[in-house]
Amino acid sequence: MLKYVLLGVLNYQPLTGYQLKQFMDQAAGHFWYAQTSQIYRTLDQLEKDGMLTSHLQAQDERPDRRLYQITPGGQADLRAWLAEPMTELQTSKDALLVRLYFSAQMDKATILTQLRVQRALHQRQLDLYRNDIPALIQQSAEEHPSLKRDAILWDATRRNGELMEEAYIRWLDETIERVEKEL
């Protein structure tokens, strides 16, 4: 999947590995995460596979940087992948659910602390989806009218994140109440 995230963003413009990591953290982080080492390994493989090219770009008073650019073959592979129907549900991983599932031997206060910390984190993420990200999407669409269609779909992914956070917070509130009453 990381392959297609990288090809997708490089389809907009050439970027450095550092810029791709920033994109992963800031724009794609709510639906896909990758460590820096994963990004560079995937970029190397994509270049070997002919999906992208790279070249060194000189910088004044700084080390040269490597700029990655999607190839026509990479664009064709990305389009083919985007057109392929998804016929299965995607599985997810949630460390909090693993912890909660096995927490019966923990004391009530520890469980509640864990749940409340997670609630605060999810509330912070929900606030980003509601307050910060819409403005960034709108600004991009205004500055680059050719990205209007993209912005509609970017906002659809933002809205998914917003709804998922709302549901997760509701579940956390119910679970906190249940633990307070029943444990």
Note down, in words, how this protein is organized.
This protein is mainly α. It folds into 2 domains: 2-83, Winged helix-like DNA-binding domain superfamily/Winged helix DNA-binding domain (Arc Repressor Mutant, subunit A), CATH 1.10.10.10; 95-182. Helices cover 67% and strands 10% of the residues. It has 7 helices and 3 strands, in the order αβααββαααα. It has helices at residues 2-10, 17-26, 36-48, 72-83, 95-101, 108-143, 148-182, and strands spanning 15-16, 52-59, 62-70. 12% of the residues are buried.
What topology emerges from the helices and strands here?
Elements: H1 2-10, E1 15-16, H2 17-26, H3 36-48, E2 52-59, E3 62-70, H4 72-83, H5 95-101, H6 108-143, H7 148-182
Antiparallel strand pairs: 1-3, 2-3
List keywords for this structure.
183 residues, single chain, mainly alpha, 10% strand, 7 helices, Arc Repressor Mutant, subunit A
Q: What's a quick, concise take on this entry?
A:
The chain has 183 residues and is mainly alpha-helical. The chain folds into 2 domains: 2-83, Arc Repressor Mutant, subunit A, CATH 1.10.10; 95-182.
Strand order of the largest sheet: 1-3-2
Write down the Rg: 20 Å
Overall domain count: 2
What about the largest sheet?
A: 3 strands, antiparallel
